[in-house]
């Protein structure tokens, strides 16, 4: 979009916005000084966007009918076939709708973005196709991914395929529902507060939030660059480890991929937990909204690890709970508002692949803000209020304190191979009624993140695996490991699964 030379009146408005007091003569003088820069912008406008090329053909696809989409897990169906061979040959995939798939519509759960079609494939999409995977389409997610429920997507609720009338969890709601329903073998999820692990727990599948930076975020619509993660949701642990092998590693485009350590995760499968040290985090069972049946099932899971030969004992990690949640809250409220909303999804001050077309399309939220979900509105209102009053000081402090929070978990992980706690404190919530008010919608979108969100701040890898059912609903057990030690998590998770844990 061309940058035009401003008029004197336009520049006067800009000066007022910046708190500058300039006379008409001074404004004219500054206009003259700006002329070479305007010319530079004009030159930039005529340069290409320098975006990654698209390797595999596809069609835009179609919106599936309700009969073809009983859980509302799909946004668009579009079959894309990759290489003729590879680790994922013949396996089927759903891509969360905050991920760019070239030529296929993307709305990221929000009516304000409907009609947008990206022109690139995210790195992880290309990696799936390079290894022979078959993408079947885009999975619904929550409105701009800001909900742990599955009721904020502009098209309606994503239903839990395990039990009717309950939520699938979010924000990767469609991804988990499609895997749980058997519509695809595997799916991409995204995680800023638990959005891979929460729907995995609610739907009874396996969800891994990898170490921060292990999987490139190139080609995904960000929420907040310091807590953005993407990773695999699958029906079992073996598929999860295989999928992460394909997804992991630097792409040369994501600047957050520093010191990445990749492993052959499938080699960790088939081992036992004999001699492993597992710390059962006391604070993870003490959240105010914890349900006793969830805690009991997770403790039974810990007891099974002990029976299988692991050294299992309770440990206190004081940074978990209140301190970790407070740090996440400031980063998410202020950081997400600035990057995802005011920054049109990408913001400024980081190197990587920016998508100007998505920034232009997302800019339209300002004219349709009333269409945003209550859970996002409360975050925006709180974030803007604090920024207006305190100019980002709490965000800055939270990023500093985050190092102490990470060190608190590292201290526990120096004594244990893994930490263990409930993924979420309670089972899946009922879908709110059609006439639900603001509070009825917002609370079940944000009330389950107490155990999951701290690890988005610290970047530790964490997996949710099924550990049983209560009232017909799945319960998830979360294992947390050292940075870059996903293989240790997979070793324990696979042994647990093979022992028959989590089955109905």
Question: How does this model look, in words?
Answer:
The protein is α/β, with parallel strands linked by helices. The protein folds into 2 domains: 8-45, no CATH class; 74-498, Amidase signature (AS) domain (Amidase signature (AS) enzymes), CATH 3.90.1300.10. Helices cover 35% and strands 13% of the residues. The protein is built from 14 helices and 11 strands. It has an 11-stranded mixed sheet with strand order 1-3-2-4-6-5-10-11-9-7-8, sandwiched between helices. Strand 7, helix 7 and strand 8 (311-315) form a beta-alpha-beta unit. The N and C termini lie far apart (56 Å). The mean pLDDT is 97.
Summarize the structure.
With 504 residues, this protein is α/β, with parallel strands linked by helices.
Strand segment tally: 11
Percent range for β-strand residues:
5-15%
Please tell me how large the radius of gyration is.
23 Å
In total, how many domains does the architecture comprise?
2
Number of helices: 14
| CATH class (first level) name of the largest domain | Alpha Beta
What is the overall shape? globular
| Helix content, binned percent | 25-40%
CATH topology of the largest domain: Amidase signature (AS) enzymes
- N-to-C SSE string, H for helix and E for strand: HHEEHEHEHEEHEHEHHHHEHHEEH
Mean pLDDT: 97
State the major sheet.
11 strands, mixed
Uncertain segments of ≥5 residues (pLDDT<50)? none
Layout of helices and strands:
Layout (H helix, E strand, L loop, with lengths): L7 H10 L6 H22 L28 E8 L10 E5 L26 H8 L3 E6 L33 H8 L5 E6 L5 H7 L2 E4 L19 E6 L2 H11 L29 E5 L10 H16 L3 E5 L6 H21 L13 H7 L11 H17 L2 H21 L4 E5 L15 H9 L7 H5 L3 E9 L2 E8 L5 H13 L6
Parallel strand pairs: 2-3, 2-4, 7-8, 7-9
Antiparallel strand pairs: 1-3, 4-6, 5-6, 5-10, 9-11, 10-11
Helix pairs in contact: 8-10, 8-11, 10-12
